[in-house]
Amino acid sequence: MLSIRQVSAGYPGVPVLTELSLEVPAGRLTGLIGANGAGKSTLFDVVCGRLRARRGRILLDGRDVTRTPTHRRARLGLGRTYQRLEVFGSLSVAENLLVAARATGAEDPARAVAETLRRLGLADFAAYPAGKLPTGVARLVEIARALAGGAGVLLLDEPSSGMAAAELAEFAESLRALAADGLALLMIEHDLELVDAVCDDVYELRDGQVLPRAGRPD
Ligand SMILES: Nc1ncnc2c1ncn2[C@@H]1O[C@H](COP(=O)(O)OP(=O)(O)OP(=O)(O)O)[C@@H](O)[C@H]1O
Predict the structure, then answer these.
(1) Given 46, 69, 91, 178, which is the most exposed site by the fewest CB atoms within 10 A?
(2) Are residues 2 and 102 in the same domain?
(3) What does DSSP assign to residue 213?
(4) Which UniProt keywords apply (predicted)?
């Protein structure tokens, strides 16, 4: 699981996050909403190590990674997807996963790929060029890539962006299955309907801190 404890971070002259704390437990899907510029991407950057926390601590499975470089956090099980689709378009789906499995030093990369393809129902797409997939499937490939690289904690930055409405239900089901499988998922999302339908807990980032989302429908 991921634990963010009293983290302050930002840019010169822009404080952004002030003593922000958030627990992202295993087996749950946690949603993060907030206005444009509230600091959601900044939070992801701090968790990944792209941006340094000025104060506070980040724990990954109980281990303090606050000063750990980004690539080592990935090896310790932290995966991330971006708002813009970032599959390697000219590679096949399986090759996309293989690159990730090798990069994070998986013991048996080919097996990690085969297992992950099966786990996400992507086996039929294994040889398919990733650049030609519908957005919903390509988003799953991004997630699969993180999992093939051994991720147990997943940060998803607006995973529904660019997805057709018809793809959303199936995608939401895949996310639920990952949480049921024991993954810790933190998802930035602007689609509130999706957030409410799919997340176990929803928080709002505002004024540098997170609070449980007010007025969430049951
Ligand atoms: N590299 C940077 N240098 C200076 N300020 C930045 C930088 N990146 C972001 N900011 C500022 O930090 C604040 C938080 O930005 P951030 O991108 O984290 O918000 P966000 O909640 O992810 O927004 P969005 O929903 O639009 O993606 C904003 O005021 C933004 O202008």
Answers:
(1) 69
(2) no
(3) P
(4) ATP-binding, Nucleotide-binding, Transport
Quote the pTM value: 0.93
CA–CA dist 56, 98 (Å, integer)? 35
38 close to ligand 1 (CB < 6 Angstrom): yes
Does 37 sit in the ligand 1 pocket, CB within 6 Å?
yes
Q: How many domains does the chain have?
A: 2
Q: What pLDDT does residue 214 have?
A: 78
| Domain limits for position 59 | 1-77+153-166+183-212
pLDDT tens digits for 75-122? 999 999 998 888 999 999 999 999 999 988 888 999 999 999 999 999
Closest C-alpha to ligand 1, atom 30: 37
pLDDT tens digits, one per residue of 39-67:
999 999 999 999 999 999 999 999 999 99
Mean pLDDT of the chain, nearest integer: 94
Instruction: Name residues whose C-beta falls within 8 Å of residue 51's C-beta, 6 or more positions apart in sequence.
Output: 9, 42, 45
Q: Is residue 128 part of a domain?
A: yes
Residues 4 and 54 grouped into a single domain: yes
The angle subtended at Cα 87 by Cα 201 and Cα 9, nearest 5°, is 50
39 CB within 6 A, ligand 1: yes
Residue 172: inside a domain? no
Ligand 1 atom at minimal distance to the Cα of residue 43: 18
On whether both 69 and 160 belong to a single domain, the answer is: yes
The C-alpha R_g of the chain, in whole angstroms, comes to 17
